[in-house]
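Fig. S4 source data, part A: sequence.
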Amino acid sequence: MGTWTAYRVRAGQQVSVGRARSGARSYLAVRGGIDTTPFLGSRSTYTAAGIGGLSGGPLVAGDALPIGAEVASPERPGAHIGAGLRQASGGRVTVRVVPGLGARPYEGQRLARQLARVSMTAQADRIGCRLDGPPLTFVESMSLPTVLPTIQRHGTGTH
């Protein structure tokens, strides 16, 4: 089966999603949606906290996902998302970093020089990623809650 394309799957039929050849994740959209109990308005799973989704954890072999009621829409096997609407994947990606509220005025330029020497590793998920390179040094600043993606220290010597 190709990507970005609608397929008709009958009850009891098995769907297999192989390893991604580019990008980081695969998504499967199901007409009617996955019918799990919403948690804070979402049916997604947050595995680090063990909440949401099917059981709060990752899917394992043998799990059965409940499918919601079908919505009235025409069946269109073979319909696909055009190339112009697809997000590019693979290759080099630039990540924008903005100093947080507690950063001192000169922190942005110093941080930019440090970040130019690091790269993201494959150790990543939807929550965060690990950086590889010289450890980042931080100027002590006030501690504020984080609401946007944040560079945080994680133990000694890691970032």
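Fig. S4 source data, part B ends here. The longest helix spans residues 107-115.
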